[in-house]
């Protein structure tokens, strides 16, 4: 935290870099996404950024190492010297899907693979082999001193992005102001689910480092849990929910393995943040915690709704957690208090 200032985070969700990479349209969308992130970062000047999954569209990426596109997505944050953490979405390690038109008379188009700007593991060139979660995470961590991402405990694999970070207090430097938990909600190469093992890991870890639930906890994963369906606005977003778009149904995880039961029992858990649904940006209360969507940030992926980013701000004296959405055009809306 900056002395005397709240701790501010920007959430970048569903960037989908590398989509239709062999077309003129695809690379242009990546450039547009960089403009969105740059606009948000310059307007909000956050202390931290969360990449909330579907950073890339791996099922559209024909190169040997999709970390080249992952690196492009990180570039606006890194160039401004802002630290970040990432969590995986269902598209980040999805197997390459061969376009049917490549088997027509026109054949496979000439593919242009990004040039290496630093050394990555793995073979070079276009190979269609895909890039695993472990490779993506290793390349991010090894090549970026500003990355706070982690590969997480091996006994939670195939889920990889499972870890906890702490925001330290300015008033009491030895005391965390908040804990930030990141969970891999699956998809891509394995089912879309937060496993029972992940739920138990969170329970064990939170009870160990925050036994009296005194320090607030904030949770990040990509695919919404089934609990989001229960609180979702039917048509128009109205109180107690706060948001601006409600244009599709909640696309939830395939099953519920216990994580929500654990979260609702912990008074220290204030909110869960997800992406995945590009046409939703609301926050709704679920008992004593909030279930929130980010805002579709990238120009890749489906939907033509205006792009933006959910902002999260933690203040110490008096303690509060606030959130709002900053749009690409600079406008702000949907402010909500998450600490009351």
TrEMBL record:
Pfam families: Metallophos (PF00149)
One GO MF term: hydrolase activity, acting on ester bonds
Segments forming domain Calcineurin-like phosphoesterase: 8-278
Listed GO CC annotations: cytoplasm
High-level lineage: Eukaryota, Viridiplantae, Streptophyta, Embryophyta, Tracheophyta
Coiled coil location: none
Protein name: Calcineurin-like phosphoesterase domain-containing protein
């Amino acid at each position: 935290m900056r002395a005397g200032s709240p701790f501010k985070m920007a959430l970048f969700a569903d960037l989908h870099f590398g989509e239709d990479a062999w077309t003129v349209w695809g690379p242009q969308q990546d450039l547009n996404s960089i403009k969105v992130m740059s606009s948000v970062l310059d307007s909000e000047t956050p202390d931290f950024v969360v990449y909330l999954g579907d950073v890339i569209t791996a099922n559209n990426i024909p190169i040997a190492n999709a970390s080249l596109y992952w690196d492009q997505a990180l570039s606006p944050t890194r160039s401004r010297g802002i630290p970040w953490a990432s969590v995986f979405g269902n598209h980040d390690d999805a197997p390459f899907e061969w376009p049917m038109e490549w088997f027509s008379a026109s054949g496979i188009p000439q593919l242009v693979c990004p040039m290496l700007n630093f050394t990555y593991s793995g073979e070079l060139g276009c190979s269609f082999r895909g890039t695993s979660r472990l490779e993506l995470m290793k390349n991010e961590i090894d090549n970026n001193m500003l990355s706070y991402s982690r590969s997480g405990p091996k006994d939670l694999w195939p889920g990889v992005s499972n870890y906890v970070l702490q925001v330290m207090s300015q008033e009491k430097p030895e005391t965390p102001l908040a804990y930030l938990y990141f969970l891999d909600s699956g998809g891509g190469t394995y089912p879309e689910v937060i496993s029972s093992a992940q739920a138990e890991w969170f329970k064990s870890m939170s009870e160990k480092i925050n036994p009296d639930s005194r320090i607030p906890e904030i949770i990040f994963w990509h695919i919404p849990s089934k609990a989001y369906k229960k609180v979702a606005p039917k048509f128009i977003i109205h109180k107690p929910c706060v948001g601006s778009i409600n244009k599709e149904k909640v696309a939830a995880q395939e099953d519920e393995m216990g994580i929500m039961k654990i979260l609702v029992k912990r008074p220290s858990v204030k909110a869960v943040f997800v992406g995945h649904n590009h046409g939703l940006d609301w926050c709704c209360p679920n008992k004593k915690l909030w279930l929130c969507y980010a805002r579709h940030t990238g120009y890749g992926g489906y939907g033509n709704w205006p792009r933006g980013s959910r902002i999260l701000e933690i203040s110490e004296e008096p303690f509060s957690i606030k959130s709002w959405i900053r749009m690409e055009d600079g406008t702000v809306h949907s402010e909500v208090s998450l600490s009351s």
